[in-house]
Amino acid sequence: MISQRTNMDWLLRDLAESVPQTKHVVVLSADGLRMAQYGTDTDTADRLAAACAGLQSLARAVADELPQGDGRMRMVVIEMAGGFFYLMAAGPRAYLAVLAEEGVDAGLMGQRMRDLVARIGEHLTAPARVDGPTG
Fold first, then answer.
1. Beta-carbon contacts of residue 123 (< 8 Å; ≥ 6 apart)
2. How far is CA 12 from CA 8, 19, 78, 132, in A?
3. Record: fold of 2-124
4. pLDDT tens, position by position, 62-116
5. Residue 114 near residue 107 (C-beta atoms within 8 A)
6. Contact at 8 Å (CB) between 98 and 11?
7. Nearest Cα to 15, choosing from 102, 86, 91?
8. Does the CA dihedral 20-89-28-33 come out positive or negative?
9. What pTM was estimated for this model as a whole?
10. Which of 63, 41, 35 is CA-nearest to residue 120?
11. Alpha carbons 20 and 17: distance in angstroms, whole number
């Protein structure tokens, strides 16, 4: 598990360094648990992951209102004073989140996030939680 996280951290660093103005990159599970991070401290990454869980849930509720949609959230982009926030589905029960400063190339960010998810999507999948012992 540690070697997978180290590999993921390297890939997240590659995303951050390839898109100028990138501040924080976090991989999280659907229930808001941080799985990996780059460019941020653990407390900030945990807060972002928790906020993302609520945001992806809201996006899914809105997606359910589209008659031809399948109810899945693919990407959410929020523009705010000071920068942009991106949240992208990265596999079953896993998400990739990026916080970037103003001036970020939005097209480049979207492309690099899609490329990263396509390259390592299976590694970004969060396992389902089990509430009790199995057997």
1. 4, 7, 8
2. 6, 11, 20, 33
3. Beta-Lactamase (3.30.450)
4. 888 888 877 778 899 999 999 999 999 988 888 999 999 999 999 999 999 999 9
5. no
6. no
7. 86
8. positive
9. 0.83
10. 35
11. 7
